[in-house]
Amino acid sequence: MMFGNPVLVFDIETVTALKAGRQLYQLDLSDDDASQALAKIRRQESGTDFPRLPLHEVVCISGLWIDEDKFQLFSWTQEQYSEKEILQKFISIFSKKSPVLVSWNGAQFDLPVIMYRSLYYGLSAPELFEQGDWNSQKRHNNYQNRYHPRHTDLMDVLAGFNLRNVQKLDDVAQILGYPGKRGISGYHVADYVKNAQWLNLSSYCEGDVLNTWLVYLRWMLLRGFIQQDQHRQWIGHTIQYLNTQSQHADFLEDWRKSSLSSEFTAQDFD
């Protein structure tokens, strides 16, 4: 039960980078007032509260690592690490391994945010941002290249690289018989951080990772990179693993229920 290369399915969670926002707009305000001011400025700029890419602060990176006999969820949050340390830990993966990255909207959001925040802290990440200057083999097959599988951004791929066709992970996961976000949205992230609810934060982020992984398995099946029996093995392996992860008992139960909505996924728990 192995892919040809290690696979890293990942997701990040962010809040508004108040220090950078204060610097950009010359705001001499408390955190709460600065947050409100930045949201108002953003609404005036674009009609949305969602910050510009350089004004995101990474509070959590979660991933699912699949390599040979290893199958493991992990999360780094600001409960234990500074933002800089979280970024360093993520970047260090690529100095040791060259996994296939899998994400949902990672090419347009997650990796650009990681890039901007790495620039902010003066970090170096040559393996992650290599574009063929030092390794000619990565000139066209690198983590930034939109059309090659070293980074498979499922949102982009399933949309045919056409923004008009973009779908939400929550919608696609539910249509395919998986749990989706289960009524929880990214708007909870700031409250989780403010109230130090770190387990809620990491569980939410890991839930997105798990949904992305399940959609990725279906994509690999569609493309013929794995066969029906291999897909069934990976589903069984994922369920077996989640049975050991108490923080995802609700995800597993919701998956059991949602799987009944599709003839294909109804077999997941047989």
**CATH level 3 topology:** Nucleotidyltransferase, domain 5
* Largest sheet descriptor: 5 strands, mixed
Number of helices: 11
Average pLDDT reading:
93
Pfam family, one: DNA_pol_B_exo2
InterPro entries: 3'-5'_exonuclease_PolB-like, RNaseH-like_sf, RNaseH_sf
GO molecular function, one term: nucleic acid binding
Concise synopsis of the structure shown:
The chain has 270 residues and is α/β, with parallel strands linked by helices. It has a single domain, classed as Nucleotidyltransferase, domain 5 (2-Layer Sandwich). 47% of the residues lie in helices and 14% in strands.
Description:
The chain has 270 residues and is an alpha/beta fold. The chain has one domain: Nucleotidyltransferase, domain 5. It is 47% helix and 14% strand. It is built from 11 helices and 5 strands, in the order E-H-H-E-E-H-E-H-H-E-H-H-H-H-H-H. The protein has helices at residues 18-25, 31-46, 83-96, 106-121, 126-129, 154-158, 169-175, 189-194, 198-223, 228-242, 249-258; strands spanning 7-16, 56-67, 70-77, 100-103, 151-153. The protein has a 5-stranded mixed sheet with strand order 3-2-1-4-5, with helices on both faces. Helix 9 (198-223) packs antiparallel against helix 10 (228-242).
SSE map:
Layout: E1 7-16, H1 18-25, H2 31-46, E2 56-67, E3 70-77, H3 83-96, E4 100-103, H4 106-121, H5 126-129, E5 151-153, H6 154-158, H7 169-175, H8 189-194, H9 198-223, H10 228-242, H11 249-258
Parallel strand pairs: 1-4, 4-5
Antiparallel strand pairs: 1-2, 2-3
